[in-house]
Amino acid sequence: MAASERAIDWTIRAARAAADKKATDIVAIDVSDKLAITDVFLILTGSNDRQVKAISDAVEEALDLIDVDPVRREGTQHGRWILLDYIDVVVHIQHEEERAFYDLERLWKDCPYVTLPLDEVTAPVS
User: Fold this and answer.
1) Does some domain include residue 9?
2) pLDDT higher at 3 or 59
3) pTM (2 decimals)?
4) Is 123 part of a structural domain of the chain?
5) 43: phi then psi, degrees, rounded to nearest 5
């Protein structure tokens, strides 16, 4: 089963908002075949704590425009790894160090990537 159209739409909106705030290494992974709780993990990087928080705010604002609010937020106080759970999409906004250490892409390497129509999006490294 592939990610739903709604999840893909939300992922693209969130990725665009993140890219507008200069997020880097933006990747979306379709985890719908492996997890029953969500369709897509959107993973992206901010270079410092303030940028991570700004990216989080931008993602929330972009999805709020279509009346979608996260059901859960984690990590907003420290700005090192903010998780926004939209049920269909889980957004992981990570500081560079956390991104390198936890390497979520490696954990989900068996799952397909979602194509994001953004110039700022980098292709996954194989």
Assistant:
1) yes
2) 59
3) 0.90
4) no
5) -120, 130
